[in-house]
Specification:
By secondary structure, this protein is of the alpha+beta class. The chain is built from three helices and five strands, in the order H-E-H-H-E-E-E-E. The protein has helices at about 1-15, 35-40, 45-55; strands at about 30, 60-70, 75-85, 85-95, 100-110. It has a five-stranded antiparallel β-sheet with strand order 1-2-3-4-5, with helices on one face. Strand 3 (about 75-85) and strand 4 form a beta hairpin.
């Protein structure tokens, strides 16, 4: 009986510590870290080109919030300020090997208050 109780307590303690690493689960939205920033900036020209093809002018490019999940690589959702109070949400996929990294989706007409979804 005491072994089971100890095991259950350990599982609860470990699962709480690693809740952010569960494959398929999204992390909370937080200020962008250096590595995700590097990933986003490496795709800046692709993102800006796609926005321009939708007739959206990019006057500023400032990624500042993101969340991520693990799914045979990393999937990032990033809130980017593009100028004049306008924001976009960009979904980026990066394979575990580091390549290919690609823009999967761009949601336009977002505000500062819109959650990353």
């Amino acid at each position: 009986m005491s072994i089971r109780v100890t095991f259950v307590c350990c599982v609860i303690a470990v699962s709480g510590a690693f809740a952010q690493l569960i494959p398929g689960g999204w992390t909370e939205t937080r200020p962008i870290d250096p590595y995700p920033m590097q990933v986003v900036l490496s795709l800046k020209s692709d993102i800006v080109s796609r926005l321009n093809s939708m007739y959206i002018t990019v006057n500023e490019f400032q990624p500042f919030l993101y969340r991520e999940r693990v799914a045979v690589g990393a999937v990032y959702q990033v809130k980017i300020r593009i100028g004049y109070g306008r924001y976009v949400h960009v979904t980026i996929y990066q394979h575990f090997s580091g390549t290919p990294t690609e823009v999967q989706d761009i949601q336009t007409r977002k505000t500062l208050a819109d959650p990353l979804t």
